[in-house]
Specification:
homodimer, alpha+beta, L-amino peptidase D-ALA esterase/amidase, Ubiquitin-like (UB roll), 2 domains, 27% strand
Chain lengths: 399, 399
């Protein structure tokens, strides 16, 4: 599946990203509009404390229909009590009026500083401007506008042929990890012109999110605002995709490829990151055990600093698997760093392997592969290294 | 309970700390000897991969009797397979011969680089030297000799009167956190002249460890070698402490005070730490929920960098509790930083409180207190801030 990091036209959709004035200078307002009612699905943070926009969008997306997504950066509308919910509704109402649709058909998301009220006056001026700026190839600007401290805008797209029709899939995302120093937030918005009923769209998005966005961890934190939304216009297909069909599977594979590419961009741009790290655990007793080990390894401050330092330190990986308290055979365990076996059959693979691993660790993408020698369980996790810059971004910031 | 950081004489015990030659220069061999057979108890790492010394000592301490503890720093004897076990036994045998006791009465511990063989020739020369150096007030030297990259030696002692007799309690410890760049290890060795049967000693040490050493986290990691051992000579009491008695409770309180003082020293000296942080969670539905929230907060890279930066960032604390997925009432939750309420009734306590909190965060000991407003559950965790120095120590090191 060829995924490109370029903006494409997805028939049925227009988008825009503008500077409304929530931030001092940068773009801070994104709008994605479907010409007609689109099938819609969403997945949201599993945190027990969520922002007002998540509460509102989570309820609305259950209907499975949407016309637009409006997103602001610079203010997260989190921890604002009843006022937060009122303001979130107002934001959607302003957008609905400017677009000419039902308020309930507008999904919303916000990211940025918490504990501060949403500047409704700025949105009241900005949203109509964004509607004026809408264009078929506006997703690049939308990707810019949802950034907080991301160092680059994240966009991925692909196309495939389903039922004889060319279908396009496109997504944008903003930073996982402690991008906004006040609050981690991962946002992604996806569009397609495939024709899919809401229930199937929801099932596919749930599975794909579990396999991609939920396999990403910059620092083990979960934001109050994490949101992924997918809109399908149906514009390019006469008959809808059927659950269980070969075409539905191909669509799901394409969506997964787009989302995985966004996840790679997010991990690579984790706060202070210099390297993308893929943790690949195999041979666990179960998928659950593999997941546990992968998350322990990927969130270990020790392992992450070792990768930053280019140190093929298998001892830290061994120690953190031990702490995960899963069933395994240390004496059968194999650890590969950047493809080089550094630990095999319960002991060091020796100084020559270490030297080769040191060279492999100079790459920008590092794979940590662990085989626990115990069973068929597998799991992956995308993460990044832990650097001085992470400390600088998160310690020197004063709210 | 007055705990002092000075070495005392504990009747029945002698100790020594010498430079044997495992490390280039610093002291690297500690020995604690009981004149007669002492009651002994130990608690060990919960990791599923443990060092050879832990395997050996964990089995021996079950008998409840010991004459000596011999500890080396500079080499952990971890991940050495069958050879590691043989070497651990040899280390104990050398000590037993030099002291003149049964090999099974010698407990051992090792900390330092992993994947390298224990230098038995160095120990064969060093252990008899350590026996020669034994003295009644040698615990300060023993505390020096178990250090790896701890910036200071850790020692705490107290005394109390039990059954008309003055009883002394003394402990030493070495660094929790990623002290040895290859492997985190927390070690502590305690002595007392109280008379306590092994079963009671074990029960008391287990409870006290759960309340102190197991409430410490520098970076959420668990070592393969963590060990706490307590020897009671009985020298100063005619009749033993009885389980359930008032004196047993007073002894336990004294032991807890000594261990908590050691834990404070360990947290303060966590790698790169500039501040000791006490996380105190109350009002949780259960103690288990409180523990979960306290560990999430205390291990959050975001919270720890905020403390380093002196930023009263309640948003990060709120977000990390949300991620702990416990039952709580965000709108009833209260957060105090250094005694200053910064978040009350679901919202910011305002800019004046923030200013006061900024001043409070300049202290060297910081309390993060959270009241979840939900029930009677409480838990504490001792930790430290996350700094540039942590990254330096763990990234720039090359094995």
């Amino acid at each position: 599946m060829k995924v490109e990091r370029v903006a494409r036209i997805v028939p049925g959709f227009r988008a825009a990203g503008i500077h409304a004035g929530i931030k001092a200078q940068a773009k801070d307002l994104a709008l994605i509009v479907s010409d007609e009612r689109a099938s819609a699905a969403g997945v949201f943070t599993r945190s027990t404390v969520v922002g007002a926009p998540v509460e509102v969008s989570r309820a609305r997306v259950k209907r499975g229909i949407a016309r637009a997504v409006v997103v602001n950066s610079g203010c997260s509308n989190v921890a604002m009590g009843a006022r937060g919910i009122r303001d979130a509704h107002s934001m959607a109402r302003i957008a609905a009026k400017a677009i000419g649709c039902e308020e309930s058909e507008v999904l919303i998301a916000s990211t940025g500083v918490i504990g501060q009220p949403l500047p409704l006056d700025v949105l009241a001026r900005g949203i109509p401007q964004a509607v004026t700026a809408l264009s078929e190839d506006g997703m690049r600007e939308a990707a810019e506008a949802i950034r907080t401290t991301d160092t680059f805008a994240k966009l991925a797209s692909t196309s495939l042929v389903l039922g004889g029709e060319k279908i396009t899939l496109q997504g944008i995302a903003k930073g996982a990890g402690m991008i906004e120093p006040n609050m981690a937030t991962m946002l992604s918005f996806l569009t397609t012109d495939a024709k899919i009923a809401p229930a199937l769209l929801r099932a596919i998005l749930r599975r794909v999110s579990d396999a991609t966005f939920n396999r990403l961890s910059v620092d083990g934190e979960t934001s109050t605002s994490d949101s992924v939304m997918l809109l399908a216009s149906g514009r390019s297909m006469r008959t809808g995709l059927r659950a269980g069909s070969r075409d539905a599977a191909r669509f799901e594979a394409a969506l997964q490829a787009v989302c995985e590419d966004l996840v790679r961009q997010l991990a690579r741009d984790g706060e202070g990151a210099t390297k993308l790290v893929l943790v690949d655990v195999r041979g666990a007793r179960s998928a659950r055990d593999a997941d546990r080990a992968a998350r322990r390894i990927g969130n270990s401050m020790l392992v992450k600093t070792a990768i930053f330092g280019g140190d093929p330190n298998w001892g830290r990986i061994l120690q953190t698997i031990g702490a995960a308290r899963i069933a395994w055979h240390p004496e059968r365990t194999k650890i590969l760093l950047g493809g080089v076996p550094v630990f095999t059959r319960g002991r060091s693979a020796g100084p020559a392997a270490r030297q080769r691993a040191e060279i492999a660790l100079k790459a920008e993408e590092i794979e940590i592969r662990v085989d626990l020698g115990r069973g068929p369980g597998q799991a992956r996790l995308f993460t990044c290294d832990l650097t001085y810059e992470y400390i600088r971004v998160n310690a020197d910031y004063t709210t």
